Every structure is written in structure tokens, then in C-alpha cells.
Amino acid sequence: MVTAAQQTASAPDAARTFPKGFLWGSATASYQIEGAAAEDGRTPSIWDTYARTPGRVRNGDTGDIATDHYHRWREDVALMAELGLGAYRFSLAWPRIQPTGRGPAVQKGLDFYRRLVDELLDKGIQPVATLYHWDLPQELEDAGGWPERATAERFAEYAALAADALGDRVKTWTTLNEPWCSAFLGYGSGVHAPGRTDPVAALRAAHHLNLAHGLAVQVLRDRVRADARCSVTLNIHHVRPLTGGDADADAVRRIDGLANRVFTGPMLQGTYPDDVLKDTAELTDWSFVQDGDLRQIHQPLDFLGVNYYTPTVVSEADGSGTHTSDGHGRSEHSPWPGADRVAFHQPPGDTTAMGWAVDPTGLYDLLRRLASDFPRLPLVITENGAAFDDYADPAGQVNDPARIAYLRGHLAAVHQAIVDGADVRGYFLWSLLDNFEWAHGYSKRFGAVYVDYPTGTRIPKASARWYSEVVRTGVLPGA
């Protein structure tokens, strides 16, 4: 049987029209683009500390300057307007607003975001604000970080500061970006900040990130405009078995639990999955989940943000794969507590510069699953894109046909999912700009806009012009 997803990937490409009102945008993250790491009261985040630790980030790169968006924000908003974007998803830097993670806000930090939001609105671009994209104030990490309950409580206080400053103008809010990465890469495998390698700490962090989300939603509902929308963004893993055997199906179940259901369960259903608790029982009894926590976490949302780049292929560990190299960075420590008997495999097909398989069918299947599991919850693609080895030619042009092909295939998958019943309301291309790509430093370019790092010069790539036309017309052209 040929599935609709396979038809989407293989059939001759015809033009596809997206629904009226579909939201088109692009996305960034504060530490990856802002720079100005010590200006106007900002203090170090865990990513400042991590990046400055020898051996953590490729080439010793840091986000101290990044793409200098803190000083070039007006130029960047003008680029968004030139491309015709309907929305811009950005994150607020917690240590820029509340440097120690406690106490009153620094007004200069808030003023930066006030100016940014005003400029976006002036250009007719919807601001979509993410409260947390991984830059925890270092002082809170020194006090224990996300494994500690107090960090969730501090996050709610920070959310109140952001809501009071921007809640009259920002209509769309996201609490957390990819809490799986924060918990399991930051505290499990150590390939992300703060670089800890403790499986129990990773599980504790996951719970307190869940709690932080729920507390923040309540704060936002209480303080922002009545017509505001609240969401969370999850990097839902589309997990596939290597074979059709029962052992590989169980490997899928284990990874799906740790990657996805440990967040969707409490956030969207008010409970932790029994199998996840059982799989991790040898590590912890989950006594850090206190009475009332699940009620606090399970808050009504206006949509679910979905980040997708590539599928995940797993099997029972038999020596043919690897326990820890799953596309997120190599480490001697696994980001998958309680899943020691699971191996990861490279999916077939073309790859991006990250080594990630290009597979739009994974996005289609993922959207269809979410539409089935949570039929009354609208979906927004909050990140999708690819890194390639881009360069400016002698004429100053950046041609990136591989990225255009990637975007065309994945947008076709989104369109097919909508046709087949998924309530997908928008799409945000990752990323607006080439930027600091976490542990890869500046070696990977995801941007629609090329950045010459020594000069800061911005050059829209061919893919930016292509995407701009899709945004303008709402039509995905045929190949």
C-alpha cells in the first residue's frame, strides 16, 4: 500500500494552495543571534558558561557577538518586512531581563524587546514571544538549575515580568522551546548547557520544566491581553522501528515515552505515562512530583508548537547501532534514561550538513499522529529547516537549491496533512539568520539569510526569495 505521505514525497509536484489565514513566519533564539552578552545589565546564562568552557563548542565559538542582532535589530526587521513575513518568532533572554533569575527586571533589557515588538507591529509582522529558549541565568544553575523545583517557581516570576512589559502588544506566547533538549541534552548527555551527565537530574529537570510551563501559562492568562494565545513548543520525535519485530516496536515505545509523552502526557492530558514511570523506576521513584503538580501543569493551550527536522530510527540494541549518537551530538552518556537497550540508526536517504536525513514523510506522519491524539488542539510548525554548506559566490549571491528542495518537500507534507484533516495553522522557517548553532558554533548555517560573521553583512539566500514568494501567494509551487 502506498501511503499519502509517500505520495507526497514521490508524486510529480503540483502547485498546492494553503488555507486562507495560514500564518507564515520565521524563527530565531536569543542566545543564537543577539550578542551583546555583557551589555545593559545582562549577566551570563548557562550557554555563556558552557560556550566559554574549552572543548564544549566547536572552534571555541561563543555567542558573545553572534549576529549582533541586539544592535542590528532594526535592519533585521526590515529584512523580515522585505520578505513579507506575517510573523516572527523570537525568544526573550531571561538573563537580559532578570540577570540573576530573581528580583525586579532590568528596564534596559525590557526596552530592547519593547522596541523590537513595536517595530514588528509597525511593519505589520506579528510578534510571537518565547519565554525560554535555553538561556537559564547562570546563578539559577549554580543554585541547582532545572532539577530543582525552585527554578520553576523563579520561571513563573520571570514570566510575570515579561507579561507585564509586553502583554499589551504581544498576542502569541510560547512558554518553553524544546524542553526535551533542556532536560536530556543539558542534564543527561551533557552535549548542551549546562553539560551535566546525571540521568536522574535529567528526569527531575523534565518534570520541573513541565511545572514551569504550567505555572507560566497561568501567569500569562492572568496578565496579558484577553485575546492572547498561549502555547508550548515541543520537538516531537517521529520514532520509527528499524524492523517490524516486537523488540524494535518496544524500542519505539521507550523512546517515544522519553522524547514525547513525558511532556505531552502531563501538559496535554494531566498525567505521566505509566510505562515511562516503569521504564525509569530503577533510577527514581518520581517522588519529586508533588501533590497538585499535574493539575498545575495541565493548562488549556491555544495551539501546540511542533519542531521537526528529521525522523528517529531505533531498534533493540544488538550491536548494529549506537546507544548515544542519535543526531543530537556524541557523548559517552545517554540522553535516554532507562533506555539502555535501545540503539539508534541513521535513516536512509540524503542528509543535511548536520548529518540529518531529509525525510518529509516523517513530518506528515507526525502531524497526522498529533491530529489523532489531540484532535481539538490546533498545530503550528514552529521550526522546520535545514543546514547546508552555504557560501557567497564572487557576485555576492548565495544559491542554496538543496534548502529549497528541503522546504518544498516539507511544505508539501504539511499541505497534505492539512488536506487529510490535520488542523495546522502556521509554519515558521528555521531560521531567519545564520547564527550560533549551539555546540556546533558557527559551523552550521540554517539561515534563510546568509550572515558574513566578520562584517555582520546580511545576504538573503535564494531560498529566502523562494520562501518569500510562497508567503506572498500562499501557494507552494510545483517543482
Structure characterization notes:
- With 479 residues, the protein is α/β, with parallel strands linked by helices.
- 40% of the residues lie in helices and 15% in strands.
- It has helices at 4-10, 30-33, 46-51, 69-83, 94-97, 107-122, 138-142, 149-166, 179-189, 199-223, 246-269, 274-279, 293-297, 360-373, 401-419, 462-473, and strands spanning 16-17, 23-27, 87-91, 126-132, 172-177, 229-234, 239-241, 303-307, 312-316, 342-345, 379-384, 424-430, 449-452, 457-460, 475-476.
- The strands form 4 sheets. An 8-stranded parallel β-barrel has the order 2-3-4-5-6-8-11-12, surrounded by 4 helices.
- Strand 13 (449-452) and strand 14 (457-460) form a beta hairpin.
- The model is unreliable at 1-12 (pLDDT under 50).
Task: Please render the helix and strand layout as text.
Layout lengths: L3 H7 L5 E2 L5 E5 L2 H4 L12 H6 L17 H15 L3 E5 L2 H4 L9 H16 L3 E7 L5 H5 L6 H18 L5 E6 L1 H11 L9 H25 L5 E6 L4 E3 L4 H24 L4 H6 L13 H5 L5 E5 L4 E5 L25 E4 L14 H14 L5 E6 L16 H19 L4 E7 L18 E4 L4 E4 L1 H12 L1 E2 L3
Parallel strand pairs: 2-3, 2-12, 3-4, 4-5, 5-6, 6-8, 7-9, 8-11, 11-12
Antiparallel strand pairs: 1-15, 9-10, 13-14
Helix pairs in contact: 1-14, 1-15, 4-6, 8-10, 9-10, 10-11, 14-15, 15-16
